[in-house]
Amino acid sequence: MGNLNKAAAASFRQGRQQGYSAGFQAGWRDGACEWAKTSPVTPVPEALPLRVLYIPQGSLGFDAIDSGIIQALQRCASEVHVGAQEGLLQQAAAIRPDLVLVLNGLYTFPPDHLEQIAAIRALGIKTAIWFVDDPYMTAHTVQIAPAYDIVLTHERGTIPLYQQQGCLQVHHLPLAVNETVFRPFRADKTYEYEVCFIGVAFWNRVELIDSIAGQLSKRKLFIAGGHWDRLKQYPLLASNIHPEGIAPEAAAHYYNGSKIVINMHRSDVPGKDNQIEAQAPGLSLNPRTYDVSACATLQLTDIRDDLFSQYRPGYEIETYGNAQELLQKIDYYLTHEEERLRIAMRGLYRTLRDHTMTTRIATLLNLLK
Fold it and tell me: What is the dihedral of CA 16, 17, 21, 22, to 10 degrees?
């Protein structure tokens, strides 16, 4: 992180004359932007001699993941084709790829999706599916998984579930950041908030925000996503809520403009918002974890088991165990800017080193090779 510290320090010295707090914050963020543009942490891997046909999920909420995978495949494989969900068999038969990689296989895929996959396998073409909605849609994914040669899941807790379905090759492949969308930059003042959360109002999130709505209403707060009218305290926070989803590119502006971004994982309990076939624990991290960290902003996240192997809490990311601890840490880090910014910078460095989509796809292709 030496180059990052030098770049930040130079910007800090320039901005310090404008006032300690404003200069320090602007200096660190400007230094992070400059460093992120000019000093890649992980070298681009050598492209493997593989022909890959990628089938995107292609529905709202997966845009950044799809585009990140496509860009990473183009860096890591010698030939990449991006196909469509309709006519999958015809595309595979014409291209004859070494691998057909499908994201999720849910929501918008045609009814004969699995029959087409069976026919592709009969042609001697290897197929893989990467589930990135686990464990919330396992009522459907357990029916999809056995149709593929290789099952990848971002959720470590669902591996035994797929093995019980007879899947012979099941691998844990965590999610990662699309580093071309989520990156540090100077956001316009219209995106500047003290506290931000962007995501669907699943019931566990509603319960947490309801419990601290009074305190949050005193902050410069931005919440966006569907179903936040579920809040009992909705009238109190209505002026702070954008009641629709936010595109990934816009979310990056809010993440860069905010001092603190809250991360709340979705509950892994069957029922309510989930379509779960069998209880599988939520152990792994959601994409927001990587996205926020890649924007060089302090993240306050609830705790998942895999967090400790991917980030250092209190050093590269910050955590909370309940609503009161969340409030206490919001208050603390809004008045301790240097600590907040240093943790955010370390989180940026760790994300660019270990958790980019390019790193994940390189791991995937080497695994299959």
Answer: -100
Cis amide prior to 49 (ω within 30 degrees):
no
Compute the distance between CA of residue 136 and CA of residue 281 in angstroms, rounded to an integer.
10
**Type and span of the H or E element at 150:** strand 150-153
C-alpha closest to that of 7 among 25, 24, 26, 32: 32
The Cα 110–Cα 87 span in angstroms is 9
Backbone torsion region of residue 196, taken as left when φ is above 0, otherwise alpha when ψ lies between -120 and 50, otherwise beta: beta
Return the SS3 of 72: helix
Q: How far apart are CA 218 and CA 158, in angstroms?
A: 40
CB 145, CB 165: distance < 8 Å: yes
Q: What does the block give as tokens for 221? A: 């707060």
The model's pTM: 0.92
Tell me if residue 253 falls in helix, strand or coil: helix
The answer to whether the peptide bond before residue 184 is cis (omega within 30 degrees of 0) is: no
Give the span between the Cα atoms of 238 and 83, in whole angstroms: 41
Give exposure, 43-76, as e/b (b: 16+ Cβ within 10 Å).
eebebeebebbbbbbbeeebbbbbbbbbbbbbeb
Question: How would you class 123 by CB atoms within 10 Å of its CB: exposed for 0-12, middle for 13-18, buried for 19 or more?
Answer: exposed
Both tokens assigned to 68: 């990140």
Among 183, 219, 232, residue whose Cα is nearest residue 335: 219
Which DSSP state fits 242? E
Q: What string of pLDDT tens digits covers the 369 residues of the chain?
A: 555 555 555 554 554 444 445 556 667 677 777 776 676 677 778 899 999 999 999 876 899 999 999 999 999 999 999 999 999 999 999 999 999 999 999 999 999 999 999 999 999 999 999 999 999 999 999 999 999 999 999 999 999 999 999 999 999 999 999 999 999 999 999 999 999 999 999 999 999 999 999 999 999 999 999 999 999 999 999 999 999 999 999 999 999 999 999 999 998 887 777 777 666 789 999 999 999 999 999 999 999 999 999 999 999 999 999 999 999 999 999 999 999 999 999 999 999 999 999 999 999 998 887
- Locate 282 and state its tokens: 């939520």
